[in-house]
Amino acid sequence: MITDQLTGNGDRWGQRIAVDIPVQVAAHHGHLKNLSLSGAIMETDHELRLHAYIEVNIKLPETDRSPIRVMARVMRKLEDAVCVEWCDFAPSTVRDLLRSPSIQLPP
């Protein structure tokens, strides 16, 4: 079960779940490395500016649906990834991913 609680350093809500989901950011490719209702850590093949608003196109695993657009903002830069925050808390695409049987939730 995922809970909405302030965690870690107090900068985000909810629990992050480890994933490896291909995404497209504008015309560039990347991978979500973990995912929560409020945001994600994402690796990309393109440098993203801090505080930039970006469009992340996510293809739900095991479905024939077209990729779904989720708007996000680059909040932090890591050595090899960026932390993004969804513009809308708990977008339906993210909720669907977290419910997907292909994603292993921690015990």
Describe the structure.
With 107 residues, this protein is mostly beta strands. The protein has 1 helix and 8 strands. It has one helix at residues 92-99; strands at 6-7, 12-13, 17-25, 28-35, 39-44, 53-58, 68-77, 82-86. The strands form 2 sheets. A 6-stranded antiparallel β-barrel has the order 3-4-5-8-7-6. β3 (17-25) and β4 (28-35) form a beta hairpin. The longest helix is centred in the last third of the chain and has 8 residues, at 92-99. The chain is globular. The model is unreliable at 1-8 (pLDDT under 50).
Q: What is the count of DSSP helices, taking H or I runs of 4+ residues?
A: 1
Question: What structural category arises from helix and sheet content?
Answer: mainly beta
Name the helix and strand elements from N-terminus to C-terminus, one letter apiece: EEEEEEEEH
Taking pLDDT < 50 over at least 5 consecutive residues as the criterion, the unreliable ranges are 1-8
The averaged pLDDT comes out at: 82
Quaternary: single chain
Radius of gyration: 13 Å
How many extended strands? 8
Largest sheet: 6 strands, antiparallel, barrel
Topology (SSEs and partners):
Elements: E1 6-7, E2 12-13, E3 17-25, E4 28-35, E5 39-44, E6 53-58, E7 68-77, E8 82-86, H1 92-99
